[in-house]
Amino acid sequence: MYLVESKGGAIVCMLFSLFFLGTWPAIMNLLERRGRLPQHTYLDYSITNLLAAVIMAFSFGEIGKSTPESPNFLTQLSQDSWPSVMFAMAGGVALSIGNLSTQYAWAFVGLSVVEVISSSLIVVIGTTMNYFLDNKINRAEILFPGVGCFLIAVCLGSAVHSSNSADNKAKLKNLSNDCQLKTVDTGSSTTKEEFPNNGAKDLENGNAPSEKAKAGTAAFLIELENRRSIKVFGKSTLIGLAITFFAGFSFSLFSPAINLATNDQWHTLKKGVPKLVVYTAFFWFSVSCFVLAIILNVTFLYRPVLNLPKSTLKAYVNYWNGRGWAFLAGLLCGFGNGLQFMGGQAAGYAAADAVQALPLVSTFWGIVIFKEYRKSSRRTYILLTSMLSMFIVAVGVLMASSGHRK
After folding, report:
1. What is the distance between the alpha carbons of residues 210 and 87, in angstroms, rounded to a whole number?
2. 375: which residues sit within 8 A by CB, 6+ positions away?
3. Which residues contact 184 (CB under 8 A, 6 or more apart)?
4. Per-residue pLDDT tens over the stretch 53-75
């Protein structure tokens, strides 16, 4: 079994994890903005998310000779490690609920702000829990100022969302000065998935309307509303913020759960039974995440939320537009989580929570791909810059607090 044993190796794992975990939400958000039902996307994502855990278990988890203290993946599957397995599976449940929630929050609040608030809550709650679970191997005088930076970022993220919402409302009030627009049919319950050839070209096939509205204009906002699967016009932004905070709380529990699964701080294992290796814990973590995701999203196909159209398993299986991107998102998330756990096992899970600075990556994609904050007010830009500055400081401080597990 391969283990990361150096602080430098742990930081490399964290940096790759940071990129992967910051990129997959952008892909999922892109598909929703192109009209793909979130239930369809999440079912595809769940398949490859589990596949990533299986690949890591049968590769890194089987490298080298198995020992009684550090058994290989297949060896440990037959051992009586169920208390730790249950902790790992509880972490998978928390992650699945959090990921599912953010899918809907992105539409209301935007990719950048959702990732900032949820990631900050992970650090504020989860990192504090990990610090004590890890027997304080991280330097508190460095760690907790970093946590404070994330807490400040929560407030700044909420302010960015409020300011940007006000900017958008102002644009829509003056839409008649931008260009002549088509009326938004807010009473329709159909999507591009139901009628892929309804006149508008399917963006998931790489095609786009011949005339595009300029990013940041009222025309752009209404064009996006007509195209996306989750309709947000006329709905309270508090819905999105509530979903975001709920997601952040759920996310904050999964890293401490993996910590308990791999280090058995509460001494739940029988005497002589080795602790779960990180790959075995990650495997069971991903299995529970997969099972819950399948149950919830199949339910949402037939009983959708937020006025989304109904679908069926047959429609899901037959609709391939965007499926490759959803598969890629699942792989990125799976490998990102696995690398985070590998780094956390070596340097402490509190320090590994530095990957929650992933909004730095997500905001980059949000600005480049989705044109978020284009033509926004000066106040919004100042708040956005301040928010990102807090994250830059936070990731450096949390990485600097890394210890070494003995």
Report:
1. 52
2. 167, 171, 215, 216, 217
3. 222, 225, 226, 233
4. 999 999 999 987 888 878 899 99
For CA atoms 344, 135, 406, 148, give the dihedral sign: positive
pLDDT of residue 210: 47
Q: Provide the sign of the torsion angle of the four alpha carbons 265, 267, 272, 273, taken in this order.
A: negative
How big is the CA angle at 251 (ends 279 and 97), to the nearest 5 degrees? 95
Answer whether 59's CB lies under 8 Å from 251's CB: no
| pTM (two decimals) | 0.81
Q: Per-residue DSSP letters for 212-233?
A: -PPTTSHHHHHHHHHHSSS--T
3 state SS of 163: helix
The per-residue pLDDT for range 238-292, each reduced to its tens digit, is 888 899 999 999 999 988 998 899 888 899 999 889 999 889 999 999 999 999 9
**Cα–Cα distance for residue pair 249/159, rounded to 1 Å:** 20
- And the tokens for 252? 């904050």
Instruction: Provide the 8-state DSSP code for 123.
Output: I
Rounded distance, CA 21 to CA 259, Å? 19
Q: Are 366 and 112 in contact (CB under 8 A)?
A: yes
Could you give phi then psi for residue 246, rounded to 5 degrees? -65, -45
Q: Are 103 and 33 in contact (CB under 8 A)?
A: no
